[in-house]
Structures are given as structure tokens and as C-alpha cells.
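User: Design a sequence. Structure:
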């Protein structure tokens, strides 16, 4: 008997589908909850990687990286210009990483460093008009990426998927981004 070309199909031992394409019933197959959770985790990782590929493709014409987009979005979310340390804490990264991202965004005119009126040692990061215009473009690109990912789903499936994602996100420890 020939070996299968791939272990990714329905014949794979941990595939959520039977060889005829129907979803496996875990009670019938004896598949453990741990195995089902492993399959779900793998599917989530694959979806995340696909979303990142699509997002990078959407961001490329705007000439911004996903990390810069995240920083720009975070700067815009503050009522007043944040300190670099505030950004590092909010993004859960080391301050040096923020410095590198700010350097790139400043070079492109999307943010600017501004002195803090209360402390000469503190630098605040302000979003520029160019940065706000970039965010508008990025939001449009993000919607296009989401539409591409969600295209196979019906409106009802999208609603259920959104509820499931909300349950997962709401169950996670609080993050600010």
C-alpha cells in the first residue's frame, strides 16, 4: 500500500473530518478532548498565519510594517501624546523596540517626538496629520484583509464566529492593544 502524499487531509490521524469529508464525532471515534483542542489550536494558528500574510500584503503598498501599524494605532488611542515608556508598557515590549519603531515612523513623517513640558528628560510621541491619513488607509486595508479571510462564511456564520471570538477574547487577561 502506498503512503499518503500528505498528512494534512481527512485521513490524517488528528483531522477533524472523516475520510468522506464529514466532521468526525468524537464520541464515535474516541478522540479525546485534548486531541480536539490540539486540532483547534492548530487551526487557529493556521488562520493567524494566513491573516498575517494577507495583512502584510495589504500593508506593503502603504509602506508600513505590522509592528509600526500597531504602534501608530496605539499612539492614536491616547488622548494626549504618550511617553515612550507608556507605549512600551501598553505594547508589552522593551523600550528599545519602541525606539526603533518610532524612528521608522518619524522618518516617514507619521509621528514626531515632542518634549514633555514637565520634564526635559521625557519624550512624548505625537501622531501627525500624515499618521492620521495612514491610519485611515490602514483601516481600509484591514477591512479588505478581514473580508478576504471571512469570504467563505455566510452572514450567519460570521455572526456566530464573531460571538465565539468575543468569548475567547473576553476570557483572556486584559491587554490594551
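Assistant: Done.
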Amino acid at each position: 500500500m502506498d503512503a499518503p502524499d500528505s498528512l494534512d487531509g481527512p485521513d490524517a490521524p488528528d483531522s477533524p473530518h472523516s475520510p468522506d469529508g464529514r466532521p468526525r464525532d468524537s464520541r464515535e471515534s474516541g478522540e479525546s478532548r485534548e486531541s480536539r483542542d490540539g486540532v483547534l489550536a492548530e487551526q487557529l494558528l493556521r488562520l493567524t498565519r494566513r491573516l498575517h500574510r494577507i495583512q502584510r500584503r495589504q500593508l506593503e503598498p502603504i509602506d508600513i510594517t505590522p509592528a509600526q501599524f500597531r504602534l501608530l494605532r496605539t499612539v492614536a488611542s491616547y488622548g494626549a501624546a504618550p511617553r515612550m515608556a507608556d507605549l512600551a508598557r501598553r505594547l508589552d515590549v522593551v523600550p528599545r523596540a519602541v525606539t526603533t519603531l518610532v524612528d521608522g515612523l518619524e522618518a516617514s513623517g507619521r509621528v514626531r517626538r515632542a518634549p514633555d513640558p514637565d520634564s526635559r528628560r521625557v519624550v512624548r510621541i505625537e501622531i501627525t496629520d500624515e499618521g492620521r491619513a495612514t491610519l485611515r488607509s490602514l483601516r481600509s486595508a484591514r477591512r479588505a484583509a478581514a473580508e478576504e479571510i471571512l469570504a467563505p462564511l455566510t452572514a450567519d456564520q460570521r455572526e456566530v464566529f464573531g460571538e465565539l471570538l468575543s468569548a475567547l477574547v473576553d476570557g483572556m487577561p486584559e491587554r490594551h492593544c
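The two ends are 52 Å apart (CA to CA). Residues 1-13 have pLDDT under 50 and may be disordered.
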